[in-house]
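Researcher: I need the complex structure. Ligand is magnesium ion. Inputs:
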Amino acid sequence: QRGELSRLAGEPSVSADGHRIEIAGNIGSPADAAKVLENGGEGVGLFRTEFLYMGRDSFPTEDEQYEAYRSVLEQMDGRPTIVRTLDIGGDKKLSYMQLPEEENPFLGIRAIRLCLEEEDMFRIQLRALLRASVHGKLKIMFPMIATVDEFRRAKAVLLDEKQKLTAAGTPVGDDFEVGMMVEIPAAALMADAFAKEVDFFSIGTNDLIQYTMAADRMNERLSYLYQPFSPAVLRLIRNVIDAAHRQGKMAGMCGEMAGDERAIPLLLGMGLDEFSMSASSILKARAKAAETSKADMENRIDEILSLASGEEVLEYLENIR
Ligand code: PEP
Ligand code: MG
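Model: Output:
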């Protein structure tokens, strides 16, 4: 099967009825970029930059980060590369950074919330990204955005650093994009307002599901609630994709759901533009897309989203063929 699939490695990702999508890879380090390319990834849809900060005893310097981002961009050789700014806090801690204990870490100071509080730390990462932007097709993404104000504040800090670098004579790319993860239900519901301000969305279903269902993504006993196919989750996803398209923006997904073969026809039908997943899932996802008619799935979306439960959705999907 592997041999059959590898034939797809150099091919574009196209549905059975000729609709083009992008299938990209999720990475956690520069070394992972090679795996994405070997598996025929058309870009990086999520570079989790936490790894740069973890397993050490001090913050990575601006130069260390610059080298890591440059390495990924150079390896990707002009393919779109989404780098997510630091998503630390919550359960992910840094030994060298004192953070107050919180009652509900997943509802606490994590990701963009922490970066906006610790602006000096955030600025170092943004400078490293801006300097690296001349080496490829960089798309900068902010995690855990809940309000338009947070996105504006994060983007303002980025543009301030860009202006400072430019004034100092440091080259900065002029075609990098700035987008956000949609992983908080408030952001999914307000996607129309966000879509006017961002260059792209990437839906983070791992967190979006846990926050929509109020079910810890790590708690096995709650797996009956942690349901990617829940119509509640699917309606939020559709809202995000539709809002993006009304503004001519790209909607991608980088949560686990994007690489779930049962979900791909559904997401294709909803119009998702970019699917980002672990490198090992890319070829299977491409094969799945190739056997799916987008138009057929599109015609079924209203019916699927009117079903009453995730179980009913899964059953419907299984019975299509
Ligand atoms: C997500 O929440 O779907 C996501 C991709 O981010 P992470 O898994 O790193 O929280
Ligand atoms: Mg997340």
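Model: Summary of the prediction. The beta strands are 13-14, 20-27, 44-48, 80-84, 137-142, 177-182, 200-203, 250-253, 274-277.
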